[in-house]
């Protein structure tokens, strides 16, 4: 979250849930609503990278959940974007790597 705020985003929601799924972070950047999927791994291992875990199924779920969020707030006509933040956690629990992919899907 601090990463987004440092880069001018305003967080308007965290861990928003409905029947179709959960939205990790919802932010605004200018006049756009940004839905951010956050993925982390302790290391790159047999499960792949955090970015690789945002597969087509997950993308469809996030999109569907975002539509529910927008309808519930009367924001269907707003500009939107889907970002991914991928985090690698180091051996001491620190953030070893953080990648923010704007417009990831």
TrEMBL record:
Alphabetized CDD domains for the sequence: PoNe_Nuclease (cd20736)
InterPro entries reported for this sequence: Restrct_endonuc-II-like, tRNA_endonuc-like_dom_sf, UPF0102_YraN-like
Top-level division of the source organism's lineage: Bacteria
Similarity section: Belongs to the UPF0102 family.
Protein name per its UniProtKB record: UPF0102 protein PACILC2_38450
Organism lineage string: Bacteria, Bacillati, Bacillota, Bacilli, Bacillales
């Amino acid at each position: 979250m601090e990463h987004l705020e440092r880069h001018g985003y305003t967080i308007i929601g965290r861990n928003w849930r409905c029947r179709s799924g959960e939205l990790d972070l919802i932010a605004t950047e200018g006049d756009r609503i940004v839905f951010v999927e956050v993925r982390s791994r302790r290391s790159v291992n047999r499960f792949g990278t955090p970015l690789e875990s945002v597969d087509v199924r997950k993308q469809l779920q996030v999109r569907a959940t975002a539509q529910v969020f927008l309808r519930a707030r009367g924001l269907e006509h707003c500009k939107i974007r889907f970002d991914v933040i991928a985090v690698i956690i180091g051996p001491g629990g620190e953030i070893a790597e953080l990648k923010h992919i704007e417009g990831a899907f």
